[in-house]
Amino acid sequence: MPLLLTEEEWRGIQAGVAQRAELLERVLADAYGEGRLVADGVVPAGAFTGSKDYVAAVRGIRPSDGRWLRLYAVDIGRGPDGRWWALSDRAQAPSGCGYTLENRLVVSQAFPDLYAQLNVVRLASFFRSLAAGLKSSSRRADPRIGILTPGPLSQTYFEQAYLARYLGFLLVEGDDLVVRDGRVFVRTIAGLKQCDVIWRHVDADWCDPFELNASSRIGVPGLLEAIRNGGVAVENMPGAGLVESRALLAFLPTLARRLLGEDLLIPNIATWWCGQPHERDKVLDEFDEIAIAGAFSDDLLGVSGRSSVVGSELSAKERERLRDAISLRGIDFVGQDIVRLSTTPRWIQGKLEPRPFVLRVYCAATQDGWRVLPGGFCRISDRPDARAVAMGEGVESADVWVLADSPVEVSTLLPSAESPRITRLLGNLPSRAADNLFWFGRYLERAEATLRVVRCLSARSVDPDTPPEPTYRSLDRLIGVLVGWGAVDPATPGRGPIPASEQGLRSAANYGSVLSLARSARDAASVIRERLTYQIWALIDRLEIALKPARARPSAGELIDLADEALTTIAALSGLFDENFNRGAGWVFYVMGRCVERGANTCRLLRQFAGHDATEPSLGVMLDLIDSQITYRSRYLVGMALAPVRDMALLDPFNPRSVAFQVNRIDEGLGTLPVLRRDGMLEEPRRLTNLLQAELTTERAEALNDARILTVEHKLLALANAIAVRYFLQGAGEGRAEKFTGFE
Amino acid sequence: MIYSITHLTRYTYGAIVELTNGVLRLAPASGNGQEVERFGIATDPVSQRLTERLDPFGNRVFNLRIEKPHRQLSIIASSRVEVTRAPSPTRSPGWESVAAEAIAIRSLDADCPAVALYPSRSVALFDEATAYAKRSFTPDRPIFDAALELAQRIRSDFVYDPEATEVTTPAAEAFDRRRGVCQDFAHIMIAAVRGVALPALYVSGYVRTVPPPGKERLEGADATHAWVSVWCGATLGWRDFDPTNGGSVQNDHIVVARGRDYTDVSPVESMILSSGRHRLEVEVDVIPAS
Fold first, then answer.
1. What's the rounded Cα separation, in Å, for the pair B231 and B85?
2. How far is CA B10 from the centre of its chain?
3. Which 3-state string (H, E, C) describes A160-199?
4. Could you count the other beta carbons within 10 Å of the beta carbon of residue A679?
5. Running along chain A, 744 residues long, what does each successive block of 10 average in pLDDT?
6. Cα of B126 to nearest chain A Cα, Å
7. In the prediction, which pLDDT does A471 show?
């Protein structure tokens, strides 16, 4: 249920938010610049330095285009009389505007007619201006812009990935960036490429381990030096979070008059910082009628688990403690007037109930001044308590519709006619994206191979036609493969094919089980979320859900069904990639990952089932595992024989399952990638594929033996390593050092 | 007193290191009764140009960058420093008036008290430390006397025990155990002093050790040391106290860097590209020249 606002009401909000953004911009410029506010006694130094986002190291730096804030947000609440109040400011890296876009998508699809009739003001042009604003802070005409994320473990990663895809920016982690000679570069498969603008989503203290928190592994060593050199624009500037503290609210009315010559259009909640003796005494005197909150943090010393309390609601003991703490270290506390909020209807247990809400409004610095997002992020409280202090984080979000008086101009993120330059490929692929696409391919391929082994094992264990093999024991060897791949615990295979199949499919404890591989594939994919479509995600999720342990002790038939379903999902995923993934460098890495893995797996299976001691049934298993039974029977009418099976699996360039076919595809892929060497020599991965191609083309199936097959397997793994060294570790060094590149 | 100081840091790596990047905070501070006559850093292998900057606390910081593959890295900082500090004051203002003054000082400069009032990365404030401080910070007591007594109490109430804590142990934990090393004692004293709303900073440096009677001075046996600086009002400024040795800081201490806690001043901070483990050796010599 969206919150509806008229255009008239919205105009008031817009002006108030833009004014506030400008005010805070000027406060930041002074606090880190000239320092007049402190020197003239307008703001006590301690009201700045108490913020964990006061970054003394940026004092004296002039941001590359003079701005401290690019995107700013403020939480506002509406009083019962209809007046809006500013409750708190967000200036570090305001989150939620990506969700606003998503919310809008969902709600507008749920109520399409309503949406069209109500003249709801669209959001897209705001994001277009924001992107243009970010671009304008670079000196280069066509700047490379990265969204710096703390990584997939961060709560807001999804939103950052969404924005990266929506705006066409790179999504980068600290590891992807290196500082050289005062400039910032992205590690890409074509070497280091300059990154001009960083939209920062990493907290200030963590963004440069050299000058700030040395224990940070998510930052970029040397980033502040690069900012100082003018080599990169970082937005918002590290240190901008300073203006979020409640202590500063106490000074904003005065600051507005001093810095803007105006009164605040949207008033603050009246706030008193207890670092000043007069204000502290007032707060202690009016203790029972006032809300007490942390001046700089959400932890209220002495009252655990609450960020804000009302004096009269405390127990005698808590009261005493808090009053003592305020008397001793008033600098940690503010007193605030209690403001009541109006409500919005919320659907609770089948009926509409009034609940208080706050609205987060976003404001961006653009070339045409401050622009306010027409809408926002509405958080609705789970409690009926309408005091602003009791708001907490809220539990539900709602879209915000601004209703225009006249029909709105429909705009999407299409850029205006003069700007776009035709591009077919998205610049140079960052090394991390390449790395993860490669591994995504490998995990998916290994999952497929494991599924085929499990399927074959379950099927043959119950097949009455399976001939007895006293000397060879195909079933034991299939289990052996699963053990070798880490899909089955080596301590338990003795219990037979069915338990082994079940483990191989979905034991979360074994790193090589199909379930674990599906999860690894998902983890690799989550790092490149912005490059994958929703359908691909849905299939990745389905693969995992299908395998999750449902019932204990499934029968052989049920295991076969599970394996078939998972194989179908992987086939669908492969198909979706084939049909939809851009044939750029990213595609090449995904394909190379699959091919390297498939080639190495086939070699391994050949040694088990088509080695020197192969039997007719074991050759049948081999053909099952590489899905080539039908081709074989159409070519050879004589039954199973060693050399033809080996030829088909290893050397035959026409069989898409053969090792030779994989090597040819890798070589073809490598040929399309950028080359760093300028001396005309082959780069190592290419040299290795050429070597393998020559061997496999000239080899005769009759002359093969186990040792030769093992050599080919080793060369494929060496090729995987060479690819990692050449493309993924590119200029790495500052940051995570270990990187494992082999599978076994 | 004039000192010749050498400070050697040596990393030995288990595997080849392709690249080392880092920052060094090894230059003794000038001012406040210290005069640096000579200072130099030498590294092996040789670093790319060592660029220097001043950090927000006025410390000299050097950027280190070694691009040549290496298995060992030695960093030698050597200096000659003259130390002549003003004697301890006989009178100082009451601590409550200093607390009020600290908030009112209109400055954000490197030596301003405002940055030293709040909890920092590795010094959280906790009730036990505040209560511990209050026993010395009694109403109207002169700040210098109260801080000195606090340092002396830490010296007698806590046990020096290098096994008890690590470099990342929080002050509250060391306080509970009543054990630790100079870093822990400094963090505890900072938490205590900030707990009563007074500005306190962490100081890293060297202290001259006097060999036991009849014994020779052992080479390389001196150590880096840490203590606490307390802001004693605009007139007296920052005054240093050593909770490990239980006294105020006079001419046996050589200041290298100041910051909110250890994380602001750690002498060598490096990042390497390698996969192996490493071994670290530190040798310090503080030799009185006159």
1. 16
2. 20
3. HHHHHHHHCCEEECHHHEEEECCEEEEEECCEEEECCEEE
4. 4
5. 88 96 98 96 96 95 91 93 92 89 80 81 89 90 92 86 87 89 89 93 94 90 93 95 96 97 95 96 94 88 74 88 94 92 80 86 94 89 68 70 78 50 64 90 95 92 69 82 91 79 90 92 85 86 82 83 93 89 87 96 95 90 92 87 94 94 96 86 94 95 93 94 81 36 26
6. 9
7. 56
Contacts B200 to A, Cβ<8 Å? none
d(CA A656, CA A697): 15
Measure A143 CA to nearest chain B CA, in Å.
28
Contacts of B25 in chain A (CB under 8 A): none
Residue B113 vs residues A417, B57, B238: alpha-carbon distances, Å:
56, 11, 9
Q: Which two tokens stand for residue A259?
A: 């810095």
CA proximity to A371, closest of A630, A731, A660, A22:
A22
8 A C-beta contact, residue A192 and residue A178:
yes
Query: How would DSSP label each residue in B216-244?
Result: PPPTTBB-EEEEEEEE--TTT-EEEEETT
What pLDDT is stored for residue A16 in this prediction? 97
Structure tokens at A321: 């403690």
Q: Could you give the angle at which helices A431-462 and A616-625 cross, rounded to 10 degrees?
A: 140
Residues of A in contact with B21 (CB under 8 A): 210, 221-222, 733-734
Determine, for residues B106 and A214 on separate chains, whether the beta-carbon distance falls below 8 Å: no
CB contact under 8 A, B107 and A39: yes
CB–CB of A45/B112 below 8 Å?
yes
Measure the CA–CA gap between A553 and A193, rounded to whole angstroms. 54
Q: End-to-end distance of chain B based on CA atoms, in angstroms?
A: 6
Q: Does residue B226 contact residue B186 with C-beta atoms inside 8 Å?
A: yes
- How far is it, in rounded angstroms, from Cα A152 to Cα A173? 10
Task: Classify strands A145-148 and A197-200 as parallel, antiparallel or unpaired.
Answer: parallel
Residues of B in contact with A41 (CB under 8 A): 106
Q: Using beta carbons and an 8 Å cutoff, which residues of A are at the interface with B?
A: 31, 35, 38-41, 44-46, 48-50, 54, 56-57, 59, 205, 209-211, 213-215, 221-222, 225, 275-277, 296, 301, 328-331, 732-735, 737-738
Does A38 contact B196 at a Cβ distance shorter than 8 Å? no
Residue A127 CB partners (closer than 8 Å, separation 6+): A101, A166, A167, A413
- How far is A452 from A434, CA to CA, in rounded Å? 27
**pTM for the full predicted model:** 0.84
Segments in chain B below pLDDT 50:
none
Q: Are A222 and A179 in contact (CB under 8 A)?
A: yes
The token pair that represents A348 in the structure block:
């609770």
A553's tokens:
């002790």
Q: How many Å apart are CA B142 and CA A716, to the nearest integer?
A: 76
Give the closest-approach CA distance of A61 to chain B in angstroms.
12
Which whole-number Å values give the CA distances from A49 to A44, A54, B30, B85, B265, in the listed order?
9, 6, 25, 29, 19
d(CA A541, CA A543): 5
Q: Which burial class, exposed, middle or buried, applies to B225 when counting CB atoms under 10 A from its CB (0-12, 13-18, 19+)?
A: buried
Q: Are A374 and A10 in contact (CB under 8 A)?
A: yes
Across-strand partners of A172? A148
Measured between beta carbons, the chain A residues lying within 8 angstroms of B106 are 38-41, 45
Q: With CB atoms and an 8 Å threshold, state whether B271 touches A735.
A: yes
Tell me the HSE value of A320 on the side-chain side, using a 13 A CA sphere: 3
Which residues in B lie closer than 8 A to residue A738 (C-beta atoms)? 275
Task: Look at residues A80, A631, A529 and name the one whose alpha carbon lies nearest to residue A340.
Answer: A80
Q: Which two tokens stand for residue A71?
A: 């995107």
